[in-house]
Design goal:
Structural class of chain B: alpha+beta
Order of helices and strands of chain A: EEHEEEHHHHH
CATH class of the largest domain in chain B: Alpha Beta
Distance between the termini of chain B: 36 Å
Oligomer: heterodimer
Number of domains of chain B: 3
Low-confidence stretches of chain A: 166-184
Radius of gyration of chain B: 28 Å
Number of strands of chain A: 5
Helix content of chain B: 25-40%
Distance between the termini of chain A: 33 Å
Largest sheet of chain A: 5 strands, mixed
Low-confidence stretches of chain B: 1-17, 21-25, 805-809
Strand content of chain A: 5-15%
Strand content of chain B: 15-25%
Structural class of chain A: alpha+beta
Helix content of chain A: 25-40%
Strand order of the largest sheet of chain B: 4-6-2-13-10-11-12
Radius of gyration of chain A: 16 Å
CATH topology of the largest domain in chain A: DNA polymerase, domain 1
Largest interface: A-B, 61 and 60 residues
Number of helices of chain B: 22
Mean pLDDT of chain B: 95
CATH superfamily of the largest domain in chain B: Aldehyde oxidase/xanthine dehydrogenase, molybdopterin binding domain
Mean pLDDT of chain A: 90
CATH class of the largest domain in chain A: Mainly Alpha
Strand order of the largest sheet of chain A: 2-1-5-3-4
């Protein structure tokens, strides 16, 4: 299998900043973020879409960046773990995981944080069952999950306490950029 | 229960008060401090090996054998060398003269066969996935592309996949010397007398399936050189051991080799290894003079990260009619895989001393045969030998209870070491320093609602409910705190078991701790800070912990075997004591008092009976200035300590599991899980609870979900996370955890270690519960993992014909 030399310019908003890079068509979004943009907070655990460590938010929705080609996100908005903090303060989800010891080695954590961030935006007061279902697509080998479930509930509490603050990056406010890719 | 609790044992859970500490230090140990590590980890400010970018960095991809056993007859790399971006292509022949043999540090017996283990195969491959060639290219994608252009011809040889068959005379051979790696035996007491005329005897065979450790961070290596010295970053648990071993393997002088374990994403034993890829990346960078990186894919990892368990256990127990155990016999086959890696043959030995568990008996007999097969080598995986031993003894104790028609808790009570009998030297020769099995068990029974669940079980049996309820018991102990160096020496291990720490008080009174432990998720930065804050009376926030880099932490034995706190934490305490003694000299001098009149409390040196005092921060600054120090006093407030324990530590606990088993479908559901662990004194209950949770999850995973499966030709079939089933949150129950605290008497912290306890305890608790549910149907075992299909098959024809004799068919 030969790669060819064709490169494609990808322009997107990552964590609120317009980024641009020329990449081969087969470049995975996970590699693009980590190695082309230097956003190494996104981790690659399996490269076949099972573990969820590489989960990022694409226009606010969680996706497996290891199953996404970078060229397909041209014109879209991506949020990674580096972009979850709000005004330099940890987000409710980041706080929840810290307070509840919802991480040990931390390798799976960015995927859980992104997943939980989108989940709590859509469902700010979830039941136990809903939390379980929300995180069941991400694997953790250290915690046994109990503290992760607690952390998501705690994040919901913190989010409720701090509700009224603006969304971090104003999803859907990309103007012209968002229209180019055809997905937003 | 209260009687036991009154015996000086305190049961406790994390409470709000655990989150609170007192001012000025003194109350840090025991407090549920949130972790220092997390602020970085939840914001992506991390330093994984794969993050590293260097000018001119090249990427390595390995071509791996598609066959389990074959002779390499032809290698042609010429076309691959012409592919875009390719800088170099190497096969085993290119490294043959310099690659040496991957080390085995544990030659367990006189008769052991340690075959040559070339990092890259030269003439023969012995497991699917063994590296046979590599491409070095300008990026990872191009390196992977060019692998397709390497031509290798193989002459297939017979695979050897079954241990029992491997020991037959006519078996194909993995190595010319044969398929037996070693036989190791151990006997105590008169085993024949114990079994002769024993009123009850139970014999069982258990299979410890092969497991894939599956740390979330795949392995990664970055090697670089300035032409003279070398630096290796690796996702390893053992930077210090790795440095020594790589120096011995590659011939790079130890002082020219720096090894760094940056952030490491879990290990569970799988990163306690000297890997082919680490050696080869060093050799490639030496050859090319350029930095190289290799990051494994998950499928590559499932094939070539060392596997765990894979033992066939024949165990027999002889008992009196009243249930008193007379003796235990164990005959073990341990699958080594194709080669002996760092501690491969030692893993079953770590279990050899634990088959007596918490029980008293007259005799014990153990034989282990290490067997070569054409599979990835096995090595340490969370618990390493002790989960296997605990599974076998706890399973067969439940079988013995069934044979006697006795409650499994009652059987254990009749056999365990009473809390007044410690210290107690077991039949295996270990001296358990402390413990209180009664207290932990009573607490667990209360939390579990044992009697009520037994009543429900009886009711379901009575009603012929298609969903039966089973109750599993596991009263485990383990040996932790690896390890007294003399004991390791007596077991032929190649190194000691001490740990090192340096503590230095900086001019402003802040403290740096250099530890020889190498955390990869455990939270040492937090726990060591708590220990130092109490010892020196400085604020928790004023302590920094440095680890994982052989240039800054020059001495260490690293992290595995639940040893870090029990050995490394004690070294930190001892170094603090030395620092405090030095500071006292300075403080006394500054206050114009005799050191004998100076007392230390919460960071302050006081002249007894006066109002005169100096803080440790003031003493630090005065020492730095050195203007007015005692005569001959070296102007430094720092100290080293190396702690070598006299004994292991012995955490214990009682885990109870209730499982609902659908006899029509074989589906199982863990209804409740209670764990009461006694890990001695606790530095940080939050961290301890997290370790217990994660450990239980991994043990349940062995019981219910995970298995590395090979086909008859030795090909691994479970190469992805879709095929090798790691449990998700939806697959696991909520755990009720609690602790009793019986301090260890063998170290000043009174700690025992907690990293492996949950894994060791939980597997037998779950399987005991499943078998207990099905016992009326004549089921005496379900092989792990107890998938619905296996449960359904174990029921067999009994699905519709329930045994009338209580299931003891």
């Amino acid at each position: 299998m030969s790669e060819g030399t064709a490169r494609h310019v990808v322009t997107l908003v990552v964590n609120g900043v317009v980024r641009e890079a020329a990449v081969p068509a087969r470049r995975l979004l996970s590699d693009f973020l980590r190695h082309d943009l230097g956003l190494t907070g996104t981790h690659v655990g399996c490269e076949h879409g099972v573990c969820g460590a590489c989960t990022v938010l694409l226009d606010g929705e969680p996706v497996r960046s290891c199953l996404t080609f970078a060229v397909t996100v041209d014109g879209h908005e991506v949020t990674t773990v580096e972009g979850l903090a709000e005004d330099g303060e940890p987000s409710p989800v980041q706080r929840g995981f810290t307070e509840c010891h919802g991480l040990q080695c931390g390798f799976c954590t960015p995927g859980f944080l992104c997943t939980a961030t989108a989940f709590l935006r859509d469902n700010p007061a979830p039941t136990d069952e809903e939390v379980l279902e929300a995180v069941a697509g991400n694997l953790c080998r250290c915690t046994g999950y109990q503290n992760i479930l607690k952390a998501v509930h705690r994040a919901a509490e913190i989010q409720a306490e701090t509700r009224g603050r603006p969304e971090p990056h104003g999803y859907g406010t990309l103007g012209g950029l968002a229209d180019r890719g055809g997905r937003a | 229960m209260t009687e036991q609790l009154d015996a000086g044992v305190v049961a406790r859970q994390i409470k709000e008060s655990d989150l609170l500490g007192g001012p000025g230090g003194g109350n840090e140990v025991g407090r549920a401090r949130r972790r220092k590590e997390d602020a970085r980890l939840v914001t992506g400010r991390t330093q994984w090996t794969d993050n590293i970018q260097l000018p001119g960095l090249l990427h390595v991809a390995f071509l791996r054998s598609p066959m389990a056993h074959a002779r390499i007859t032809r290698v042609d790399t010429s076309v691959a060398r012409t592919q875009p971006g390719v800088v170099a292509v190497f096969s085993g022949a290119d490294f043959a003269a310099e690659q040496g043999s991957l080390p085995c540090a544990w030659p367990v017996s006189e008769d052991i066969v340690i075959p040559d283990h070339p990092p890259m195969a030269v003439t023969e491959v012995r497991y699917a996935g063994e590296a046979v060639a590599c491409v070095v290219a300008t990026d990872r994608y191009k390196a992977a592309d060019a692998l397709d252009a390497i031509e290798i011809d193989y002459e297939p040889l017979d695979a050897v996949t079954d241990m029992t068959a491997a020991l037959e005379d006519d078996s194909p051979k993995v190595h010319e010397s044969g398929n037996k790696a070693f036989t190791w035996t151990f006997a105590q007491g008169d085993i024949d007398a114990a079994f002769r005329d024993a009123p009850v005897r139970v014999d069982r065979t258990y299979v410890q399936q092969r497991l894939i450790p599956s740390a979330m961070e795949p392995r990664a290596v970055v090697a670089q050189t300035d032409g003279d010295s070398f630096t290796l970053h690796s996702a390893t648990q053992i930077p210090h051991i790795l440095r020594v071993m790589l120096a011995l393997t590659t011939g790079i002088p130890e002082h020219k080799l720096r090894v760094i374990a940056p952030d490491v994403g879990g290990g569970f034993g799988s990163k306690l290894q000297v890997t082919a890829e680490e050696v080869l990346c060093l050799l490639i960078t030496r050859r090319l003079g350029k930095p190289v990186k290799w990051t494994e894919s998950r499928s590559e990892g499932n094939l070539t990260v060392h596997h765990g368990r894979d033992q066939l256990q024949r165990i027999s127990v002889a008992a009196d009619a009243d249930g008193r155990v007379r003796g235990v016999k164990v005959d073990l086959l341990a699958d080594m895989g194709a080669y002996l890696m760092l501690v491969t043959p030692g893993v079953p030995l770590l279990g050899a001393f634990m088959y007596s568990g918490i029980y008293k008996m007259d005799a014990y007999d153990f034989t282990c045969t290490g067997v070569f097969t054409t599979k990835m080598p096995t090595d340490a995986y969370r618990g390493a030998g002790r989960p296997e031993a605990t599974f076998a003894i706890e399973r067969i104790m439940d079988e013995l209870a069934a044979e006697l028609g006795m409650d499994p808790i009652e059987l254990r009570r009749r056999n365990w070491i009473g809390h007044t009998e410690f210290p107690y030297t077991t039949i295996c020769g270990l001296t358990y320093d402390s413990g209180n099995y009664e207290a932990a068990t009573d607490r667990a029974l209360a939390l579990f609602g044992y009697d009520k669940l037994r009543a429900e079980q009886a009711d379901r049996r009575e009603r012929d409910d298609p969903v039966q309820l089973g109750i599993g018991v596991s009263t485990y102990t383990e040996m932790c705190g690896l390890a007294p160096s003399r004991v390791l020496g007596s077991l032929s291990y190649g190194a000691g078991g001490w740990e090192h720490a340096s503590v230095r008080v900086l001019p402003t009174g802040k403290v740096e701790v250099v530890t020889g432990t190498s955390p990869h998720g455990q939270g040492h930065e937090t726990a060591w800070s708590q220990i130092v804050a109490d010892a020196l009376g400085v604020p928790f926030e004023d302590v920094a912990v440095i680890h994982g880099d052989t240039s800054s932490s020059h001495k260490g034995m690293d992290t595995y075997g639940s040893r870090s706190l029990v050995v490394g934490g004690v070294a930190v305490v001892q170094a603090c004591e030395k620092v405090k003694e030095k500071a006292k000299q300075v403080a006394a001098h500054l206050m114009e008092a005799s050191p004998d009149d100076v007392e230390f409390s919460r960071g302050e040196f006081r002249v007894r009976g006066t109002g005169t005092s100096r803080t440790i921060q003031e003493v630090a600054l005065a020492t730095f200035a050195a203007h007015d120090l005692p005569d001959g006093f070296e102007p430094r407030l720092d100290a080293d300590a190396t702690f070598d324990p006299d004994n292991f530590s012995f955490p214990h606990g009682t885990h109870l599991c209730a499982v609902e088993v659908d006899t029509e479908t074989g589906a199982t559901r863990i209804r409740s899980y209670v764990a009461v662990d006694d890990v001695g004194n606790v530095v940080n209950p939050l961290i301890v609870e997290g370790q217990v949770h994660g450990g239980i999850a991994q043990g349940i995973a062995q019981a219910l979900f995970e298995e590395a499966v090979h086909d008859a030709d030795g090909n691994l079939l479970t190469t992805t996370m879709a095929d090798y089933l790691l449990p998700s949150a939806a697959d696991l129950p909520a755990y009720t955890t609690d602790r009793t605290e019986t301090p260890a008497t063998t170290n000043p912290l009174g700690v025992k270690g907690v990293g492996e306890a949950g894994t060791i305890a939980s597997t037998p608790a779950v399987v005991n519960a499943i078998v207990d549910a099905l016992r009326p149907y004549g089921v005496r075992d379900v092989p792990m993992p107890c998938t619905p299909e296996r449960v359904w098959r174990a029921l067999g024809p009994a699905r519709t014909t329930k045994s009338t004799d209580g299931g003891l068919s």
